[in-house]
Write a structure and sequence with these properties.
alpha+beta, M1 Pyruvate Kinase, Domain 3, eight-stranded mixed beta sheet, globular
Length: about 220
């Protein structure tokens, strides 16, 4: 993480209907809008932020979604066109944070709140709908730039311009990029995920379903 890692913007959103596959309407809260001033960090979300599908999004292990300004810039270069900062539906946009190299279980202080890095994002079809490019979920998988879901350790407030301070980094070294790569591309390395106990329980369940045991 860079010496001057900061939050560039804080965004929240509520579910709205958009046109989905085969003309069906679907709810999504991906269209989040940047807000000025302090935003309260609650147990499982930011104040004013909602999820359209609580079973798949939100909850303690997906309380706050973070995407990096540097990753948005990478997408602009990759796609050869303008990409809006909020294309990925994140709550916090950071600068100076290498989210790919972020270790699962890192503790961060942002503003007066504390967070723990829980897991990378797995894209669903709504990323394609929200971005206006239905190839985006596939591209997202290939790019291995998943961003970070955070769980809330201590409530507080966050504001654009707040520093991102690492309070603790686990020694196991399992990064968000590694988790994403193992889960989606290198499943023969599934046992590696057991080295990161801070991952949500669903990951250990997935590993054990594959008949893998801790070494």
């Amino acid at each position: 993480m860079a010496e001057h890692a900061v939050v560039r913007s804080v965004a929240v959103g509520r579910p709205v209907e958009i046109e989905g596959p085969r003309g069906r309407r679907t709810l999504t809260a991906s269209a989040k809008t940047a807000v000025d001033g302090p935003v309260a960090v609650l147990d499982e979300h930011l104040e004013g932020d909602e999820q359209a599908d609580p079973e798949s999004h939100g909850g303690p292990h997906k309380a706050v979604y973070v995407y990096a300004e540097e990753d948005v810039a990478w997408w602009r270069e990759e796609l050869g066109r303008e990409v809006d900062r909020q294309t990925f539906g994140q709550n916090l946009t950071t600068a100076g944070v290498d989210l790919r190299a972020t270790v699962v279980g890192e503790r961060w202080r942002i503003g007066s709140a504390e967070f723990e890095v829980a897991q990378p994002r797995t894209p669903c079809f709504k990323l394609g709908l929200h971005s206006g490019d239905r190839t985006m979920p596939r591209r997202f998988l290939t790019a291995v730039r998943p961003g970070a879901y955070l769980r809330v350790v201590t409530r507080g407030h966050v504001t654009a311009g707040d520093a991102v301070e690492v309070l603790h980094r686990p020694a196991h070294g399992v990064t968000l990029a590694e988790v994403f790569t193992v889960y989606h591309h290198e499943r023969e390395r599934a046992a590696r995920l057991l080295d990161a106990p801070e991952l949500p329980p669903a990951y250990a369940h997935w590993v054990h379903e594959r008949g893998v045991k801790a070494g």
